[in-house]
Structures are given as structure tokens and as C-alpha cells.
Amino acid sequence: MNELPGDGDYGTRIDPHTIRFERDLFGPIERVWSYLTESDKRATWLYPGDIPSTPGGESRKSWPGKDGEPQFTIVIRTRIYDPPRTLEYEVSEAAAGAPARDSRVRFELREDGERVHLTLTHAALAPEAFASVGAGWHAHLAVLVAVLTETAGDDAETRYERLLPRYEAMAAP
Description:
The structure is a single chain. By secondary structure, the protein is of the alpha+beta class. It has a domain at 30-39 and 47-108. Helices cover 28% and strands 37% of the residues. It contains 4 helices and 7 strands; from the N terminus they run E-E-H-H-E-E-E-E-E-H-H. The protein has helices spanning 29-37, 39-42, 130-149, 156-171, and strands at 12-15, 18-26, 58-64, 70-82, 86-95, 101-112, 115-123. A 7-stranded antiparallel beta sheet has the order 1-2-7-6-5-4-3, with helices on one face. Helix 3 (130-149) runs antiparallel to helix 4 (156-171). The two termini are 23 Å apart. Mean pLDDT is 90; it is low at 1-6.
């Protein structure tokens, strides 16, 4: 198994624009779903913000730069909201001084006894974003596992820095 301590399996590069992660999580499935969709629970492993439950619904989150102006903004548009099994949304990311990037994220949950199998697929990635997005999802999923198991561990930023070189190597032509 390809692992760093506490980080779980690496994502699988499906093609230059798609990465897939699989994790087995503690259930029940409704609990895991709530961590994907409810703002207070999402904030424990990713960032706050509800996911719109209506296809076409939109949410926006901005992070300020040093001057207080938005440095990075992410807009999510729900495509599929089928609780507690499938969540898919389009993502538009805009960083100050850089062109916007659009992609698609899909979460699929499947009950497996007392566990829940999570498949996360991030598609339509710009090739130059592959390493950063891969390391980011990997780090945040490790935090989600820690939250769901009530175990301590490194924060997402620390994990990201440790994981990024591996994803950069994975993204190399």
C-alpha cells in the first residue's frame, strides 16, 4: 500500500484531467453525507459552506488576501444532489491575477456493512492544477478520516506540504 503515516492511499490518476480517491469511512452513511453537505461539519475537514441541495444552486466562498480583498474565490454549482448517495458539483476557482479554472467534483457513497465506501472523483482539471488538487484532496480526506474516527493528526496544510512532491511526480509527463 502506498502510504505516508496517517495519510491513507494516494489518489489514482485516471487521465491527465481526472483523479480519483477511495476511502472506507465509519458510518452510518447519513453521518458521512452530513460531513459533505452541512457547513459546520464541512468546516471540520474542508471549509465552511452549505452545498445547495437543488441542481443549479450555487454557493460562493472567498478567502481574503493581505489587503483584505478577495485573493481566492470558489463557486460551487450543484449538478446532482441525491442524499445520501451521490453529490456532484461544478467548481469555478478564481485567484487574483490568474485565469479562472473550472472542474467537476463527484462524491459517491456506498454502504459496506458498518463502513461507508467513499469515491471522490475530480474531473476536468487543468493539467497544471493536477498536483495541487490531488495533494489538497488527499490532505483534506485524511483530516475527514481523523474527524470521523475522533483521532488526532496533522492539519490539512501540514499534510499537503508533505504530499505535494508525490503528486507533482505523478503529474509529470
